[in-house]
Each structure stands twice: as structure tokens, then as C-alpha cells.
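R.M. (postdoc): so does anyone remember the format we settled on? I'll just put the C-alpha cells first.
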């Protein structure tokens, strides 16, 4: 099954430009209660995902860093420990199951590599649960 039915469009996704600050990421994650947020470059391409863990490791490894000091650190300067692998819009649901094991969401790109949205792990699990229930009938 094509993934387009499950796509949450970019207009409904919380994301940050790559040039955002660490403080902006912390505040957005706190407000939305997210543990990871996609990053977008100046051309609209997916540039990775920043996680709470990435921010915590940056704080731990930056002596003297305060919350107000986080305004001076851009997300492009924070090492990311996890790679959220994106898929193209023409992918099938079967392509997502292995990604859902390790990612909270799967970024989706158009044919030009532009970020167009995400598919959450929840939708992938629900799809497979429904498929399994239909097979059991």
C-alpha cells in the first residue's frame, strides 16, 4: 500500500529550520512534548532529526552552558547521534516497518528531495495491526 494515505503534511508537522538555536528546539520540544523534531535546510530539504538526547549530550559536553547560553548554539552545531532515514513519497508501507522499529516517525520527501511531511510510528503499527486482524478473520 502506498504511504500517501498515512502522510501528515508538512503544514501540520512541527519542524525547525537547521539554523534554529538550541534554545528554540528545547522550547518547542517542551511545548509540544516531543522527543524528536525534523530539521529542514534553507531549500526545504530534510536535514536530519534533533532529539532530546542530542540536546542533553551537547549540554553535558559544553562546560558552563546555561539555558540562556543555548541561544548562541545553532542546531547545525549539535552532533546528532541518530539518523532518521527518510523515504520518498512513492514508497510502500512495507518499506516503513523496519524504520519504525528505531524511529518515532519517518520523514517523507518528494521526488526533488524536499521535505513534505512525516508518517508516525503509530500509523505504521495501526496499519499492520489492522492488516493482521483482517488476515485472521
Amino acid at each position: 500500500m502506498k504511504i500517501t494515505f498515512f502522510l501528515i503534511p508538512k503544514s501540520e508537522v512541527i519542524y525547525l529550520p537547521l539554523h534554529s538555536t538550541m534554545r528554540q528546539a528545547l522550547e518547542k520540544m517542551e511545548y509540544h512534548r516531543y522527543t524528536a523534531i525534523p530539521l529542514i535546510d534553507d531549500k526545504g530539504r530534510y536535514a536530519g532529526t534533533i532529539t532530546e538526547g542530542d540536546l542533553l549530550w551537547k549540554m553535558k559536553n559544553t562546560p558552563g552552558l546555561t539555558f540562556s547560553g543555548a541561544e548562541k548554539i545553532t542546531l547545525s552545531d549539535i552532533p546528532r547521534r541518530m539518523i532518521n532515514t527518510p523515504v520518498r513519497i512513492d514508497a510502500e508501507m512495507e518499506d516503513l516497518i523496519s524504520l519504525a522499529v528505531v524511529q518515532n516517525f519517518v520523514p517523507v520527501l518528494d521526488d526533488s528531495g524536499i521535505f513534505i511531511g512525516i508518517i508516525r510510528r503509530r500509523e505504521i503499527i495501526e496499519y499492520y495491526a489492522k492488516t493482521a486482524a483482517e488476515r485472521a478473520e
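R.M.: ...and that's the designed sequence above, right after the C-alpha cells. Also worth knowing: The first strand starts at residue 8 and ends at 9. Strands lie at 8-9, 16-17, 36-40, 46-51, 87-88, 105-109, 115-120.
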